[in-house]
């Protein structure tokens, strides 16, 4: 079966039933389209087994609670539906594929449009399942050369304006930062946002760390999305390796003078950051502490994270276009 046939046969869980992926749609009158009024999570598997799914769902339901989305589906029902979606699509996945779940919850159709015939009433729950390689296949080289983090003029939105700890779809500031980073000369430029006080906050879909000696340092959790991968590094991998973990405000100066730096994100786990605004961090090379942490992550999940991503040398045609990705905006 060729890839195009496989894609036509993937199904999406939508409001209690499975529908073909191409038919999974929400109304133009949905609050998500009108306001970016949607909470979401995106997960990954290792060896086809979901990683930290419950933690992702707990963060999702925290957002549902805070945004007061009237969702009746329980977290246990959501978890079962995630596994059911994987099971429904597993026969279409290659042996080396991993499951990338995208879980969206919108408030639903706005009240003034409720009279439109045929529209779903109430919140929308959508669970899509597609190959992880779509997201990470182009990232393999970064394990060797590292990212050049670029501080953009676009700032992070602080928690007192729109709380980034709620993983929501109101993310135009991420896209603007990616557009700015893409305009710079050179390759592997990823945006790094400062908060309004000038402290390093986060990337556009990833968390940022520096390493000094045996200490892993993360920006404070006030004005960032507190990532599941970030928590794993801080609460499990760091202690497991006997490394100190510190959460504090850091400035660009702290990054320039760090020994190493890296990004974390669900699809790629960890990627090294070897430059800041074109200047080397440490020796400007992928550092030994980064390699040590990533090696432990791989050992814990029973899969070589770096090697797996490097083997995905090609991806589906639509991902070879110049359309923006969650992490970069192509020139």
Keywords summarizing the entry:
about 325 residues; alpha+beta; globular
Structure summary, number of beta strands: 16
Radius of gyration: 20 Å
- Poorly predicted regions are none
SSE run: HEEHEEEHHEEHHEHEEEEHEHEEEHH
Let me know the largest β-sheet: 9 strands, mixed
The rounded distance between the terminal residues' Cα atoms is 34 Å
Helix share of residues? 25-40%
Derived from helix and strand composition plus strand pairing, the structural class reads alpha+beta
Shape: globular
Helix count, DSSP H or I runs of 4 or more residues: 11
Query: What is the typical, i.e. mean, pLDDT?
Result: 93
What is the percentage of strand-forming residues? 15-25%
Characterization of this structure:
This protein is an alpha+beta fold. The protein has helices spanning 3-9, 31-35, 53-67, 75-89, 133-136, 142-145, 172-182, 228-240, 252-256, 288-301, 305-311; strands spanning 11-14, 17-20, 38-42, 45-46, 49-50, 99-106, 124-131, 147-151, 189-194, 200-203, 207-212, 215-218, 244-247, 260-265, 269-276, 279-280. Strands 8, 9, 10, 11, 12, 13, 14, 15 and 16 form a nine-stranded mixed beta sheet that branches. The chain is globular and about 60 Å long.
Spell out the blueprint of helices and strands.
Blueprint (H helix, E strand, L loop, with lengths): L2 H7 L1 E4 L2 E4 L10 H5 L2 E5 L2 E2 L2 E2 L2 H15 L7 H15 L9 E8 L17 E8 L1 H4 L5 H4 L1 E5 L20 H11 L6 E6 L5 E4 L3 E6 L2 E4 L9 H13 L3 E4 L4 H5 L3 E6 L3 E8 L2 E2 L7 H14 L3 H7 L20
Parallel strand pairs: 8-9, 8-15, 12-13
Antiparallel strand pairs: 1-2, 1-7, 3-6, 4-5, 6-7, 9-10, 11-12, 11-14, 14-15, 15-16
């Amino acid at each position: 079966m060729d890839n195009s046939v496989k894609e036509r046969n993937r199904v999406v869980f939508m409001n209690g039933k499975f529908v073909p992926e191409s038919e999974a749609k929400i109304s133009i009158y949905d609050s998500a389209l009108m306001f970016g009024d949607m909470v979401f999570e995106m997960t990954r598997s290792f060896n086809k087994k979901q990683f930290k799914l419950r933690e992702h769902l707990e963060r999702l339901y925290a957002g549902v609670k805070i945004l007061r989305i009237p969702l009746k589906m329980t977290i246990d029902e959501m978890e079962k539906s995630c596994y059911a979606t994987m099971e429904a699509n597993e026969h279409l996945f290659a042996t080396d594929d991993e499951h990338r779940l995208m879980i969206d919850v919108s408030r639903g159709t706005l009240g003034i449009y409720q009279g439109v015939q045929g529209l779903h009433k109430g919140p929308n729950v959508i669970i899509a399942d597609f190959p992880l390689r779509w997201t990470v296949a182009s990232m393999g080289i970064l394990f060797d050369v590292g990212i050049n983090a670029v501080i953009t003029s676009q700032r992070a939105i602080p928690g007192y304006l729109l709380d980034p700890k709620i993983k929501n779809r109101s993310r135009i500031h991420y896209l603007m930062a990616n557009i700015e980073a893409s305009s710079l000369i050179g390759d592997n430029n990823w945006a790094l946002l400062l908060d309004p006080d000038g402290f390093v906050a986060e990337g556009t879909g990833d968390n940022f760390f520096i390493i000094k000696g045996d200490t892993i340092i993360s920006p404070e959790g006030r004005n960032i999305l507190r990532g599941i991968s970030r928590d794993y590094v801080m609460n499990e991998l760091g202690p497991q390796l006997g490394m100190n973990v510190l959460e504090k405000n850091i400035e660009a100066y702290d990054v320039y003078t760090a020994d190493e730096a890296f990004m974390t994100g669900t699809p790629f786990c960890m990627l090294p950051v070897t430059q800041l605004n074109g200047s080397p961090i440490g020796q400007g090379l992928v550092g030994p502490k980064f390699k040590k942490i990533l090696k432990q992550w791989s050992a814990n999940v029973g899969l070589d994270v770096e090697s797996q991503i490097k083997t995905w040398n090609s991806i589906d045609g639509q991902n070879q276009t110049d359309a923006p990705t969650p992490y970069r905006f192509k020139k």
